[in-house]
Write a structure and sequence with these properties.
Layout: H1 7-10, E1 35-36, H2 41-46, H3 57-64, E2 70-73, E3 83-86, H4 88-106, H5 115-151, H6 156-164, H7 180-193, H8 196-203, H9 212-223, H10 226-235, E4 249-255, E5 261-267, H11 269-284, E6 303-305
Parallel strand pairs: 3-6
Antiparallel strand pairs: 1-6, 2-3, 4-5
Helix pairs in contact: 4-5, 5-7, 8-9
Length: 306
């Protein structure tokens, strides 16, 4: 794991808590009581949500996006405790919402009790969303810090002030999106849900547990794209910026024999790269800034449960 804990002490001019924002919040939320969360396969397999459901989490997502449940704290603000923080009560609330959506379609195809599998599927889907989303915030922060360390020119605070809370406007193309960072973060998470290999891995969890016909229905739901459509609807209810992940998608509709309208999503590589380049130019304050998403992928930041 890369050690970024010394950045704030070495560069206090780039780490002023009065100017550095926590995405979704602005000021640093309380972190007391957080415990480290290991992302090893063993821990993820054994993990079960212990906290009670937070009834305010889903309404808060309409204003804060997924940051209402999980948020990124920069190494500039909390050198010894930086990383991604997940509110466990919010995690349960979001998991229960995923359960409602999935079982609305697939409940009738569960001919045996698969509650243990469902719990694992839903927890995995929610964690993957929250972690993939917040990973983008870390990548942006880290890239800016590298540039600032190299040439001494402030970037991150000025970029956040100019763009993070920019007034929303109709966004027809990536360059129109004000809070492009949140749009790209949601897009990075959504790409998992439209990845056939990812969807197949999720659907395979019920193989051997259900009748073959019912297993095929589970596969059709995840691999065929119905789950992604449901998640696109969930994401689209988030604020401007967050919901503009749709600017990077292709949307295809077709009508079946029973007049059922089928929707399928795929990502548009050209539009996605335009969005990435635009964000890189905003952050670098230069049209010559390289695409920061094409640089070496860093280790995942620390994760904590609140």
């Amino acid at each position: 794991m890369e050690d970024l804990s010394g950045f704030a002490a070495a560069h206090p001019e780039f780490s002023d808590p009065k100017t550095i924002r926590v995405p979704g919040y602005g000021q640093l939320p309380p972190l007391e009581g957080a415990r480290p969360f290991d992302l090893t396969s063993e821990n993820l397999t054994a993990y079960h949500i212990e906290a009670a459901k937070d009834p305010n989490a889903l309404p808060a997502m309409l204003k804060l996006g997924p940051e209402a449940v999980a948020f990124y704290v920069s190494f500039r603000l909390a050198p010894e405790r930086w990383g991604v923080y997940i509110r466990e009560g919010g995690l349960r609330a979001l998991k229960e919402e995923y359960h409602r959506i999935i079982w609305r379609d697939l409940g009738k195809y569960a001919d045996k009790n698969v509650d243990d599998v469902a719990d694992k599927v839903e927890t995995t889907l929610v964690l993957d969303y929250l972690l993939a989303h917040n990973r983008v915030h870390f990548i942006v922060d880290r890239w800016a810090a590298e540039q600032e360390s190299a040439d001494g020119q402030a970037r991150y605070a000025a970029y956040q002030a100019a763009w993070y809370a920019s007034p929303p406007k109709p966004a027809m193309v990536p360059e129109d999106v004000g809070n492009l960072e949140e749009a790209l973060a949601n897009m990075d998470a959504f790409r998992q849900y439209i990845n056939p290999s990812y969807a197949e891995g999720v659907a395979k969890l019920v193989e051997g547990r259900l009748d073959e016909r019912n297993v095929n229905e589970w596969k059709a739901f995840f691999i065929g794209g119905r789950f992604a459509v449901e998640m696109a609807n969930v994401f689209s209810r988030q604020p401007p910026g967050w919901k503009d992940f749709a600017r990077f998608l292709n949307r295809k509709t077709s009508v079946g024999a029973t007049n059922y309208v089928r929707i399928q999503y795929s990502y548009n590589p050209e539009l996605l790269e335009r969005g990435q380049k635009e964000l890189s130019q905003r952050l670098g304050a230069s049209k010559e800034s390289p695409n920061l998403f094409k640089t070496e992928v860093p280790d995942f930041p620390n994760v904590y449960i609140l």
